[in-house]
Amino acid sequence: MADFRPAYETLILRRDRARLYVTLNRPEVKNALNPVLLGELKDVADILCDRQDIKAVILRGAGGTFCAGADLRNMESSIGAPPRPGEKDPIAINNREYGTFLEALGSLPQVVVAAVEGYAIAGGFGLVCVSDVAIVTEGCGFAMSETAIGIVPAQIAPFVAARIGVPQTRHLALTAARFKGAEAVRIGIGHYLVKDSAALDEKLEEVLKQIDRCAPLANALTKQVIMRVGTEPLSATLDFAADCFAQARRSPEAAEGLRAFAEKRPPRWAG
Hints:
Layout: E1 11-16, E2 19-24, H1 35-48, E3 56-61, H2 72-76, H3 90-106, E4 111-116, E5 119-121, H4 123-129, E6 133-137, E7 141-143, H5 157-164, H6 166-175, E8 178-179, H7 181-186, E9 192-194, H8 197-212, H9 216-228, H10 234-249, H11 252-262
Parallel strand pairs: 2-3, 3-4, 4-6, 5-7, 6-9
Antiparallel strand pairs: 1-2, 7-8
Helix pairs in contact: 1-3, 5-6, 9-10
């Protein structure tokens, strides 16, 4: 079983029982995404794919800000020479990597919880939209700001649209509108609205205790079923769901869950 590095340059990892807290740690630039941070996030996501001992992954930003999007200083200096005829533009190749990462993060077998305060802009906005649960503060600022600086929210737009629908995404992307936590919850980006950082901590613990009640394999399989909705014919999704049900039902988890229910006690994983 792969393990995490002893230390990361731009991430702080903290393990607490079956929870992994992943904190973006570039507070001096509002946790803006640069190649090092993205590389480390990809490394963590790759390891989590096979970690059945972790049930919940909590994403947060250091210094009171979630993530202000891409580090524009890096973007300005990384344009490079145009591609030669017949070659793929290296800018497109580099941009596509973020979409690959978001897809992997959103598909993790763990429950991904985003604890959002400060700002969630552009690429940071995309991180929130692939989480399973998002808790946001009232004062947090959100925006798909790319078009306001002449670029395209290319890799986050499909995930935003999957989260809140195409009409809302068109509105946000084509106006680069800025809005706060209450609006984020109203349109479905966030699930819980809290007053401030202290209330965020309190609500986060409440949500994690709810996740503790759920069996890890059952959650992972349920997530796979839900994420197939709309990507294939309904009958194919139902066939897949039936196979997932059978896999779960034959697992030690289901045996323990049914036994615990009969004995009127919490199942072992709930501890």
